[in-house]
Design a protein that fits this description.
The chain is built from 6 helices and no strands. The chain is mainly α and 137 residues long. It has a single domain, classed as Growth Hormone, Chain: A (Up-down Bundle). This is Major facilitator superfamily (MFS) profile domain-containing protein. It is a multi-pass membrane protein. InterPro entries: MFS_trans_sf.
Amino acid sequence: MGYISLSLNTSSLHGNPYLNCFISAAIEIPAYIVSWLSLQYLPRRLCSSASMLLGGGVLFFIPLVPSSLPIISILLEMVGKFGMTTATSLIFVYTGELYPTIIRNTAVGSCTMVSRVGGAIAPYFIHLGKGMQRPLV
């Protein structure tokens, strides 16, 4: 849900929306490379939890940024998108390795279904911020 919400919110950031969408798409390339490297060299729990904490933790600082510095807000959102992209790609591999072989297909299918439900309700979370006094990003 976080990954899809950040992807959909890119066009409403300050500045040029085309440049913001390009940066949002370009940030995924190093995120996938980092996720592949972390799967090679780090334990699964460490890389999953670290990327989720990076992706979610950075986003809490966006409301603290003054509105006169929109570049910092964009930078924080892109770092959050980097963490969310890394976490999303890691969690699919980790889920497949977590369950025993006899129930793996059912378990991965169930987890994927729950993630798709989160993706389906993600656009509604963007509308929650519209009623606030100051936009978060």
